[in-house]
């Protein structure tokens, strides 16, 4: 049965129950300023970053090209490298020094950034944790050993190492438009990442005596110099990730001859490092609709048994990337397939590298998940621009351009649980998705973790939904953030927090921003507006360095939605959502009361008194002999009077005004019969949590039918604590459910329900008349403030 919604002649379908007159009766009702613009919280737009959120006409960014050779010594577990960097100064500034990152120093006991943490006496400890305190700290032998730093001609350069950062003092000022070429030779002992932690290193497999190397943050790399930060040379502690410049890479890796190597970019000499059979399989995989084993499981098992003493050099090239990572092991099975990105007609090689320990999972799913991810992200952001996308099983997750490291091993007998499979798929999608955030839309991870982790986790959720509609996503749906938002206020922190200072890192940097974007898309903006704005942000800032304000402004600019209230509450604040149904008032029409007569009220505007309080600033200004005051002759010559401008009408204190309320007429019997079955329901809401959100209601009627209504968050603009809505129905209401689909992250659903069976409603009647033809009642009905209200009169 279709529900008939009645619109009465004297009322609208829904009514907020709060007017301009109420503001005078509820002083301080808007004290939280939740709907004020962000204003000076955001940086001032300039020629580099516009007020629309787009790069300004003067936007610039510097660039660094790398030519690197690397030698992997498996016996000593040492990496030796030599690089030539060409650094381009596109900034308007003269530079007399440059900064590089030595991330591997974080593994050193004496070179690391050493951000200490509080520690307490444990009740139990592992043998690794229970080590005698050795003061002063001895050198554990890890970290970067700089062998030589020279200019392009081989002349030594003066440099200073400060923990994980290195400053090179330039022999002459590097001016705008100039480039500087220099060389660095270095080496370091590769850490066991399974024991020491960190994002790169080796994993040893004692069963077969082999290592699997993930070479990340392995070379001295340029810091970002930008218009918004200058040099981003904050120390690397292992938490806050990276800020990097774009450039072109040419990298050669000399490794044991039986190793298989995967890396950022395209390998340029497969014909020299692969067997003829492997090369043929690789070429076949380019056009295959299913993953083809390029290096088979049998070949990988055979290679594990024979540690070759011969060596091979693999050569890779990658253009317009911000970083380079690679992997090397004789344990790898390698498969691949071609993927077409329709939006830009880009043919991509999706590939996976994995040891036999992960074979039964990765062979089935990894490369297909890679292909699915880059295709889905291309729909929501920009078309994937690179020629390669790779997933490497390495027992952990970490991302780099065109290559990422993931987990997902089976039991020894090759079996796996549904949980392990879904966890593996989620990690692959997430890490491959990082190709877009931050590898292409290149935010500053050292400062803002949410700009890559949060945005990426959001699109990961969309991609998981496209992979399997019942995929058990843990981040993205609004209800999944509730447990975090229920924590005491002193355990919550704004999303807009520096990476190093976040305590609840997972919820803060990943879950809450992803959830917020999903709420924007599904509940606040709608998919069409959101998707257009989100794609606009990705397009504007692809291969550039966005900041939070660029994202916030673009989302509003491209959608026409004022979202400052949302950024203020969800990103800058810690308030949770807890909107409660406080009370329901039920009323039926009184059709017999005589109509009201028109009334006239006369009033005169009082002349407001000037502020005669002398504050301390005024007193001190008068005492300051260096201050000369402007003399307002007009104010001295005449009385200051209050004037209210409403169109052509001027309020004058010398004039008497008349405020007229139009009368009403009786309803005809036919009209009474039409409205006699109408019931009005006023629902009062209380904002207990503090964070404003849309009010979404599901009505269930006594005949079993249902109706859903949604009011935008703007309903809270004039009163952030309490609002009311009135509905008129031609059938009896049985119950009301607030936020029925749990889409606003409301932390307490126990106060979201009202039932007419509970007997907790107030019963009343409302008078119903026919509005006089041509009559106008100023005030709440048309949103205008009448002169009497403006003058403060009742």
TrEMBL record:
Residues 370-570 form the Peptidase M1 membrane alanine aminopeptidase domain. Residues 1-20 form the signal peptide. It holds the Pfam family Peptidase_M1. CDD domains: M1_APN_like. The keyword Hydrolase applies. Its EC number is 3.4.11.-. Keywords: Aminopeptidase, Hydrolase, Protease, Signal. It is an enzyme of class 3 (hydrolase). GO terms for molecular function: aminopeptidase activity. This is M1 family metallopeptidase. It comes from Chryseobacterium salviniae.
